[in-house]
Write a structure and sequence with these properties.
CATH topology of the largest domain: OB fold (Dihydrolipoamide Acetyltransferase, E2P)
CATH class of the largest domain: Mainly Beta
Radius of gyration: 25 Å
Number of strands: 7
CATH superfamily of the largest domain: Nucleic acid-binding proteins
Number of helices: 2
Largest sheet: 5 strands, mixed, barrel
Helix content: 10-25%
Shape: elongated
Distance between the termini: 93 Å
Structural class: alpha+beta
Order of helices and strands: HEHEEEEEE
CATH architecture of the largest domain: Beta Barrel
Strand content: 25-35%
Oligomer: single chain
Length: 162
């Protein structure tokens, strides 16, 4: 082989190794960040098969009133335990799951009893959903009034007559 052909072969080999390395990193990054959305009912059904324990999951429901227990470990970590409930309107049945959240950020201000919440994390063999993040939907106070009336003007929105 000539020197110029050998140079191209070495360059091609190095390029192939770099492309394969980047492809591997991209693939594993996507796999680790992929979340599956499941209902609480599906979570319980899939727990019997065993493959649910290795997946990143998202589960939603309403926070059961009185179930929120907050603890601070003194190191800036927030630890919150609560229960989510999901009601099936077709059958009237209810499914619940206990959630344990531990993280650097405290739960949002809208996270309270009866709030719609979304927990992201994994389901443990102990029957508890271990959340790494939680989100809460805004309270119904932001929804428009049902009777169709417009909200009263506040001092900031009233026009002044000077």
């Amino acid at each position: 082989m000539s020197a110029s052909v050998s140079k191209y072969v070495k360059f091609g080999a190095v390029t192939a190794i770099i492309v394969l390395g980047l492809s591997y990193l991209a693939f594993t990054g996507v796999q680790e960040s992929k979340d599956y959305y499941v209902t609480i009912k599906e979570l319980h059904q899939q727990a019997s098969s065993g493959d649910i324990y290795t997946k990143h999951l998202r589960v939603a429901g309403s926070v059961v009133p009185g179930s929120i227990v907050r603890r601070d470990d003194g190191n800036g970590h927030s630890h919150v335990e609560f229960t989510l409930i999901e009601k099936d309107p077709a059958t009237g049945t209810e499914e619940t799951v206990n959630v344990s959240y531990s993280g650097m950020e405290p739960p949002p201000d809208t996270f309270k009893d009866n709030a719609q919440a979304l927990a992201m994390g994994g389901y443990g063999r102990d029957g508890v959903f271990h959340a790494k993040q939680i989100q809460a939907k805004c309270a119904s106070k932001y929804a428009p009034k049902q009777d169709g009336s417009t909200p009263a003007a506040t001092p900031a929105t009233q026009s002044s007559s000077m």
